[in-house]
Task: structure prediction
Amino acid sequence: MSDLGSRIGSWFQNHAPTREKLEQNRWIRPVAHLVLREDLWRFNRRSVPRGVALGLFAGIMVPFAHSVIAAVTAVFARANVPVAIATTWTSNPFTWPLIFPGAIFVSGRLGFHVDMAAYEYLRTHDASIGQWISWLLSDAAPPLLFGLFVIATVLASVGYLASSLFWRLRVGAKRTRRLAEIRNRKSLS
Result:
């Protein structure tokens, strides 16, 4: 498993844009002084959990262009930009069939009337964007949006807590290992 993790890490390192490449991008250059601040790209115990929470929330609430929204919002929240962008990818065309019905289920359980027939019809009959927009503006969309908000809030909170706990355990393990090495060196002396 660690071999797979190292391969994924090396692939990401080779393909992820660097700060230097982004500074040269003509679209980012006008706002580079905001977006490319060093503290937004540093991995630390405060910025990483913020990035995880922000990315999960944006990924669930905004089905399209969520990476851009997460990156821009990360600037104001002082969250880690790469982590915020990466965690938005948890919401993708493969997870939408779970997220949207889950949101409708959650809102139905919380007392909202949900018109599942209209949703199922649009989903199974290759509805056009106009039909989806019409449905979103109808009375069927508020339960979906409320359910998405509830799911996004819960996942963002869990993501924040889990990444904070992971960070704390990782730092604690490193500290314990370093102290053991120091004790071993002192006992050998």
Remarks:
- The CA atoms of residues 27 and 35 lie 12 Å apart.
- DSSP finds ten helices and no strands in the chain.
- Residues 141-188 form the longest helix (48 residues).
